[in-house]
Amino acid sequence: MQIRHEGHIATPLGFYTDGLHAGLKRFKKDIGLIYSDVPAQTAAVYTQNYFKGAPITVTQASLATSSLTQALIVNSGNANTCTGKKGIADAYAMRAATAAKLQLPVDYVTVASTGVIGVPLNLPRVLDGIAQLDETQSNGHGFQEAILTTDKAVKSVCVTIELDGQTVTVAGVAKGSGMINPNMATLLGFITTDAAIEGVYLDKLLRQTIERSFNQITIDGDTSTNDMVLVMANGRAGNDILCANHPQILQFKAALMYVCEQLSKKVAADGEGATKLIEVNVTGALQQTDARLIAKKVVGSNLVKAAFFGEDGNWGRIIDAIGYAGVPINPDTVDIAISGVTVLKNSEPVIIDEARDLTPVLKAHDITIAVELHLGNEAGTAWGCDLSYEYVKINAAYRT
Amino acid sequence: MQIRHEGHIATPLGFYTDGLHAGLKRFKKDIGLIYSDVPAQTAAVYTQNYFKGAPITVTQASLATSSLTQALIVNSGNANTCTGKKGIADAYAMRAATAAKLQLPVDYVTVASTGVIGVPLNLPRVLDGIAQLDETQSNGHGFQEAILTTDKAVKSVCVTIELDGQTVTVAGVAKGSGMINPNMATLLGFITTDAAIEGVYLDKLLRQTIERSFNQITIDGDTSTNDMVLVMANGRAGNDILCANHPQILQFKAALMYVCEQLSKKVAADGEGATKLIEVNVTGALQQTDARLIAKKVVGSNLVKAAFFGEDGNWGRIIDAIGYAGVPINPDTVDIAISGVTVLKNSEPVIIDEARDLTPVLKAHDITIAVELHLGNEAGTAWGCDLSYEYVKINAAYRT
Q1: pLDDT digits (tens, 9 = 90+) for B160-198
Q2: Total tally of structural domains belonging to chain A
Q3: What is this enzyme's EC (chains A, B) (predicted)?
Q4: Are B135 and B89 within one domain?
Q5: Pick from B274, B4, B43, B328: which is nearest to B158 by CA?
Q6: Is position B372 annotated in a ligand binding site?
């Protein structure tokens, strides 16, 4: 697997993207398009929130007909959620306008939105924006900007692998937390690849990968109404169609996992108000799901997050979160290390000189917490960020 | 039911309390005693955290022998948790010293601790403190202070009811979040009553009451290792023994519920860094447990909490938390009112003048969020506080 630093969402063969300012936000780009010049196998996962944004309803409808799509239309600045029947009609109108522009069947188009909840969409501006989007652009940058809100950086990854003698590219882009009108940390992730892959298998693979990547990050524990991760695979690379029995399937799995994991870490590191990226690795669990749950509880604990903002290696809070994760553990056999410094062994404190041993590693931007349960052989990882004054400031501010 | 503003934990007949400075904290009182001059039916509930403080092990051992006790010994300033075999031995030593001093069987004594995790207890100071405690004091104040840490106020409630022609007193005291060495928001609650009541029934009643009071508050979602609520009922009021068939049982239930609910609200209002008390009432649910879960998710959401700190009626965040609570709801039938101002009706925004209608109620200290699901007839309430800069400051500070 080769990491392509110069690559982006429009690097896989046959993918084109654009983004521009339609007027939903004051100045920044707020509408984006991904277009594949041939039909692409498409799979998507959505928020588990019972309140789902109108675009999710429309995307689900498109993918219910068949797993083939050729375009994604996305806007930022308005989530189009809790907007009643008009909201659903607006999302269908976005799909119809995009399909007409690109001369595609309507169910070859998917829709995503992120932004403020409960405010009707300014549909004329959106339709005007769709009309102006250029489906022949292939630099990727406009699209990457159009999905951002107050994210401090573009979150993009691109890798290539060789399959059946062909170069296959897998690229992804995500937006994380932080909005001009902060409402919630909507996560949107879009992955393009020119791999040829079976549709049902792509769906399965996406779900497996998401469980260990996007679903393992938390900024504040609040699951948005508009979360969506979507992958389009258009087969333009010319490899033999990927399925469970393909001899090089592990390479593709690894590439997809790498893209999702890197995007997840970028989202966590750019969480609202974040000053640190925190990674929690849980080992020695009876089941992978146990390990992932504990890792996520630790990285999601306000007390743990605030401690690391204060550069305090307060492992009592880590122990506490492990204990309330809801997974049976043995409270006498837990080891904890913070960025390589063991602070707890068999659930008893290790005598260290905090100022000498621990303080230096706590000053780093990246913090790793290793938890060994000594129960079994399964492992899991989660990512998050610290809890800062800035987080409170961003989210206590008025929407206007 | 009469509210007794002058009453306290030592007001029920036959109860005596004391508290003093043993030297675990720098200056403040840190050891306390509740003593009943006759054996009291005793019930307790403990943290669900897999890591339990050593005192919980000892209290469970005392109550495993019989449900009768006569004394509770409690220290603040050290949680005696993750302190290995020495920690367990220390907690047993606290019990033994208290029993010897009061000439009681050891299993007539229960033990509680709150404070920093993973630091060995200074047992000589604790034993010295126990020796100095005065079991003839009945003003309640020393004890109430001894369990506090950085709590800004004593949390105490006292009520009386008439049962079988006798005055029965129910009193309670609690400590909440905030410590000199902030580690977690340990909750301790102690309730005394001179009611005569069957032991097994008292246990059942405590569990029922806790589900709708203490278990419905959250400051930061972190369940401590040392949480404990304990009730002692010594029968000195002379009423007929309370059981499920007692003709006035509803009065006693109401008194116990009132005491627990008031203590819960006091703990929530005094959460670390809190500037507001937030109450969430969910109605129209299919089950009480559903309503309670949704209420607790809303009041526990960082985004909701930060919004109210900023006096922003950002109901999109309330909707979001309702939707991810894990309880099936109908996303088209939800009403939301904030302190009496309806902002959402059948899941669609109500047009209001925010500055005129909403801003004034958001400036109040007490905020009430009413959520009507329109699914059934069950209800539930939860209490919490806002998320402020001060919360981050308290919890980002070094332990020393």
Answers
A1: 999 999 999 999 988 876 432 333 346 788 899 999 999
A2: 2
A3: 2.3.1.35, 2.3.1.1
A4: yes
A5: B4
A6: no
